Amino acid sequence: MSLSQQQRFPRRRASVGASRDFVTSTLLKWELRPLVQDIKLCVSELATNALLHGVPPGREFSVGIHRGEGLVRLEVRDSGPGLPVVRQPDNDACSGRGLHLVRELADDFGIDDHVVGKTVWLVFKTPTTPEPAPS
Description:
The protein contains 3 helices and 5 strands; from the N terminus they run E-H-H-E-E-H-E-E. The protein is an alpha+beta fold. The chain has a 5-stranded antiparallel sheet with strand order 1-2-3-5-4, with helices on one face. It has helices at 14-29, 36-54, 98-105, and strands spanning 3-10, 60-68, 71-78, 108-113, 118-125. Helix 1 (14-29) packs antiparallel against helix 2 (36-54) and helix 2 (36-54) packs antiparallel against helix 3 (98-105). It is globular, with a radius of gyration of 15 Å.
């Protein structure tokens, strides 16, 4: 079984919350409740990075979520130049830990460079048995 959903978001702060809502509703529709919290946190980090560092003014970013055999792939694509860099922030730094976090939560991580922009992607293994719906 292969399922896929994608949505575009404008370059504004509210899009981070909207991208969380998008992946949450998609995962719940696919009955993947155990992945919701980790993927919701990861899309927040990637969407924020896209807004701060990747989406030029007047453009959008997209969030894609794909379900394949035994995995879910989350993608955030923007049209800005440059590639994300995993930094080593100082202990008292207020930012710079997002990519470390998503790499720890995901089972795989990568960046695809395009002629225009890039896609940051994460892969999560799906649970082997579905979790029962709450009563």
